[in-house]
Amino acid sequence: MMRVAGTLTNKDWKDLEYILKPKENENWGNAFHFFEERIRTRYLEPIQAILDMEKYEGEGFAVVNLQCSLIETIESFINGWVHNSAKNKWYDKKIENDYAQMDGKRLKKNSSIFISFFSKRSPFKEQRICGEEFFKYVRCALLHQTQTKNNWFIRKNSSKISSYECKNGEKIIYRDQFQRDLEVIIKNYKKAIIEEAEFDEKISTKDLRANFCAKFNHLCKQ
Predict the structure, then answer these.
(1) How confident is the model at residue 99 (pLDDT cuts 50, 70, 90)?
(2) Region at 38 (left for phi over 0; alpha for psi -120 to 50; beta for the rest)
(3) pLDDT per residue over 177-212, tens digit each?
């Protein structure tokens, strides 16, 4: 057995997944608990611990680096996307075993996660963040060079309401507000999975739940 969400194991997930029914709300609260524990222990608590340091010596780079990974986690769960390490691209879980379909038309480039996320997920889609640019000049720049590029900046400003601002040619991410908005998406996603609440782009609850299970099943095989 391996842990997949806090102390929860892949066996715990398989036991629960066996009784889940996409058209019935029963047990979906327990299912989402797996997702919450996974991101709480791996992202939310570490991010908050760094934010609470308040040293202002560059720790914002670590925060946004973790936030980029959290974005990939959220968006891949919503869409049921998994990563093909050999081709270094994302693809729909439904074609995992159909290698004939793993071509340029079905595989998604890595930036697709961020393009999808920033164009579809409220409250970010209202801020008109370019997902392609964010991927190149924030996500990849932070991962490979420990810095943002091309006039993208990470800042702390408690007076700001928006988590993003384009001003005088600068594209500014306000790290604390950015985290607040990420957690809004997580809450909305939870309501959609558990209570069948309407979600962004009007994705059906049935599809969201199917994608959720497909993603977790894939993770439990690793």
Answers:
(1) very low
(2) alpha
(3) 999 999 999 999 999 999 999 998 788 999 999 999
Helix (H) or strand (E) holding 8: strand 8-9
Residue count of the chain: 222
Distance of alpha carbon 202 from alpha carbon 21, whole angstroms: 20
What's the one-letter identity of residue 199? F
What is the Cα–Cα distance from 81 to 91, expressed in whole angstroms? 5
Q: Tell me the two tokens of residue 124.
A: 């970010």
What's residue 94's pLDDT?
55
User: Taking the CA atoms of the chain, what radius of gyration do you get in angstroms?
Assistant: 18
Three-state DSSP at 165 gives strand
Say which residue the tokens 């439904």 belong to.
94
CB 11 within 8 A of CB 2: no
**CB-side exposure of 73: number of CA atoms within 13 Å?**
22
Instruction: Tell me the C-alpha distance between 33 and 117, whole Å.
Output: 22
Give the pLDDT confidence score for residue 100 in this predicted structure. Answer: 40
Q: In this structure, what are the phi and psi dihedrals at residue 82, rounded to the nearest 5 degrees?
A: -130, 160
**Over the stretch 106-149, which tens digit does the pLDDT of each residue have?**
557 888 899 999 999 999 999 999 999 999 999 999 999 999 99
Instruction: In whole angstroms, give the CA distance from residue 55 to residue 71.
Output: 25
| Residue partners of 128: CB distance under 8 A and separation at least 6 | none
